[in-house]
Amino acid sequence: MAEKRKPLLGFVGKLPSGTTPGNSGKTRCPLCMGLFKAPRLLPCLHTVCTTCLEQLEPFSVVDIRGGDSDTSSEGSVFQELKPRTLQPQIGILCPVCDAQVDLPMGGVKALTIDHLAMNDVMLESLRGEGQGLVCDLCSDREVEKRCQTCKANLCHFCCQAHRRQKKTTYHTMVDLKDLKGYSQMGKPIPCPAHPAEELRRFCELCDQPVCRDCVVGEHREHPCELTSSAVHKHGDSVRELLKGTQPHVEALEKALAQIEGTNGALQERVEAVAADVRTFSEGYIRAIEEHRDKLLKQLEDIRIQKENSLQLQKAQLEQLLADMRTGVEFTERLLTSGSDLEILITKGVVMERLTKLNKVAYSARPGVNEKITFSPKEKAGLCRGYEVYGAISTKEVDPAKCVLQGEDLHRAREKQTASFTVICKDAAGESMGRGGENIQVAVVPKDKKDSPVKTMVHDNKDGTYYVSYTPKEPGIYTVFVCVKEQHVQGSPFTVTVRKRHRSHPGVFHCCTFCSSGGQKTARCACGGTMPGGYLGCGHGHKGHPGRPHWSCCGKFTEKSECTWAGGQSAARSLLRTVAL
């Protein structure tokens, strides 16, 4: 009944504000933190004051209740067994462990009283650690003595009255100060049905303590015995359960210790890995920053170099322009303003100067361009032991300088992959040395221009690109290769796709006699025969070509296409040779 489960409806009990649930010891309530007052034992074996339990907000659940409910209470043991019926159940939550506690019919006050907690409270009060005890009889004055026979705490007035009565005259009275060293103080537990009688017997049939009146009343024919006798049997049962539970406690403690150890090791490992991550990332960041600075310095050097070249070219062109203007202005002024004699006198100097100026070579285009590219995915080697990426280049691919290479450049076979390589170069004819260019390739059948062949372009990251395609049918195909939407050298070009390569069904041998193991019926396409009824060729005999050849078609090249197209009978004899 103390299992954790969600209530079906109602409200969940909450702790009063300002309290913290937990184990407050043997004498203090975990809610009010004061000494226990009428402590009640919950099914989860936590103890709480009756008033504190009554302050918790109950919730309602629907449960099947019956007389054999496992909610133990001091009041419910006197109720008659009832058949199981579907009825609403009122419950609360334990303020310590949040376990659901189904309340008996009598509510909180019907829960079992924790007499151990009451005994501990009494002992603490006797030791002066709590509030003073009041008399059990008058409930008014402070206790001075204790009757060891009745187990009652009495004040001075009630103690004298206790001694004057005949029944209690000879009871042993002890001062409270003499009881401070005791570890246990038994107090009579009255019968709930007969408060004047003390519970001294145990009914085995009903499994509950009873008083003398109960034995002669409701439990008249039930097997009853003194509690001192019954406790041995039932105590043994409890000890057996305890014996079976203690290993679980030890196992759980060990498991928790292992969890704590693992958690500690986990924390240490997390910190160590975090330190490694920080060290790696910090080193990587420094490497990237250093590589960044190198790239920026390289970029600045390129800028200075290009600017110096442009400034030098500019100065040369400005000087040449000034000389040209001087010559042109002087000559125009001479021709328009000079006399005939003046023109003839200065003609030689003017013509010599203009001729010299006209022979000066100069470039009308800038000697350098603004082309500077950054390739963030290009590997740039190691920096501080870390692989870094990103390179600056002033090279620019020139489609007119790019070339095509490959054995399958102008030939291919149907349903077989053909390939070639595109080598990208700059305007100076030097290899780009890096990838990243947009290579566009199209392979189009001559007769089916609307059905291009699927092509694959693999960037080798070194300025070369591997192109592959698989034509499905034989015929003439046109291949277009473009870089930056411009054709490279040799593009477009045609490819002749022939039928699929025919493999040799025979064997490449020196002669039929050797390859067939001396079989007479084995034949060879070379047409050679041997005396003695051998249908195949042999060394030095008629028809042998004098060199290794294929038995199926007679070709002398081992890696060649088979051209054999013989009949069925020839195929049988050739297959014999092949099998051997």
UniProtKB/TrEMBL annotation:
It is an enzyme of class 2 (transferase). Belongs to the TRIM/RBCC family. This is E3 ubiquitin-protein ligase TRIM45. InterPro entries: Bbox_C, Filamin/ABP280_repeat-like, Filamin/ABP280_rpt, Ig-like_fold, Ig_E-set, TRIM45/56/19-like, Znf-RING_euk, Znf_B-box. GO terms for molecular function: ubiquitin protein ligase activity; zinc ion binding. Residues 29-98 form the RING-type domain. E3 ubiquitin-protein ligase that plays a role in the regulation of inflammatory response. Mechanistically, mediates the 'Lys-48'-linked polyubiquitination of TAB2, a regulatory protein of the kinase TAK1, leading to its degradation via the proteasomal pathway and inhibition of the TLR-mediated inflammatory immune response. May act as a transcriptional repressor in mitogen-activated protein kinase signaling pathway. The keyword Manganese does not apply. Residues 249-316 form a coiled coil. It catalyses: S-ubiquitinyl-[E2 ubiquitin-conjugating enzyme]-L-cysteine + [acceptor protein]-L-lysine = [E2 ubiquitin-conjugating enzyme]-L-cysteine + N(6)-ubiquitinyl-[acceptor protein]-L-lysine. The gene is TRIM45. It is found in: Cytoplasm; Nucleus. One of its GO terms (cellular component) is cytoplasm. Residues 130-176, 186-222 form the B box-type domain. Keywords: Coiled coil, Cytoplasm, Metal-binding, Nucleus, Repeat, Transferase, Ubl conjugation pathway, Zinc, Zinc-finger. It comes from the Eukaryota. It comes from Balaenoptera acutorostrata. The keyword Ribosomal protein does not apply. Its EC number is 2.3.2.27. Filamin repeats lie at residues 394-497.
